[in-house]
Amino acid sequence: MSITAVIPVREGSRRLKNKNIAPFAGTNLLINKINQLKCVNEIDQIVVSSDSDLMLEMAKSQNVYIHKRALEFCDEKTKTFGEVVAHICENVMGDHILWATCTAPLVFPKHYRTAIHDYYKALENGYDSLVSMEMFRRYLWDDNGPVNYELGIKHVPSQELAPLYFCTDGILLAPRQKMIEWKYFHGTNPYRFILDKRTSIDIDDGLDLACARAWVDMDESVSQIDPYCIN
């Protein structure tokens, strides 16, 4: 039941240049995530998968494993996303894969530990994977009007709306062989691991990065001596 944590990073980024190694918390996003994962004893090995020699050298400097990807598995054009997932999983070891994006820097070791614990229970209860999600209640529209509420006298306060969820991509857990079979990082019956709004942040642009930098010190349970290895 070994777990391999995979950090997928690539050299190109269309919306925020070099976002995977953007300065963060005294280091950069990639090394920040490596440091966080090192503090999770339930993880057996950490692999950085990338086409970037610079990022792979950073990984080596942190004494974690590397997987060099050809450009065709990074350019978002030549290979489908599913082919990329399968390719990475075929080239690492371990019974289970924890897909851990460095652009989710506020997912701390305590969250990974809890997720892994819940994941094993979820498999026993018939789920096929685990996906971190944020639950929300908002008034949604499509091109035809309201989606999840009614206008006029039947309008209800937002807290009475049925909950909705979006995948945060901060924590994704599934058996490695299943990821290869699915060509995806979770199955059709995933366990929903709920994260709060702050922890769910995924850096896609400069505003996300600024928010993550502002929010990183808000967790009162984080040790002032070591901001990652918390129990």
Features:
231 residues, alpha/beta, Spore Coat Polysaccharide Biosynthesis Protein SpsA, Chain A, seven-stranded mixed sheet, two-stranded antiparallel ribbon
**How much is the radius of gyration in Å?**
19 Å
Strand content: 15-25%
- How would you name the CATH homologous superfamily? Spore Coat Polysaccharide Biosynthesis Protein SpsA, Chain A
Given helix and strand content, the structural type is alpha/beta
- Please state how the strands of the largest beta sheet are arranged side by side: 5-4-1-6-10-7-11
Q: What is the β-strand count?
A: 11
Helix fraction, binned, reads 25-40%
Description:
This protein has 231 residues and is α/β, with parallel strands linked by helices. It has one domain (3-214): Spore Coat Polysaccharide Biosynthesis Protein SpsA, Chain A (Alpha-Beta Complex). The chain has 6 helices and 11 strands. It has helices spanning 29-38, 53-61, 81-90, 109-124, 176-182, 206-215, and strands at 3-8, 23-24, 27-28, 45-50, 65-68, 96-99, 129-136, 141-142, 145-146, 164-175, 190-194.
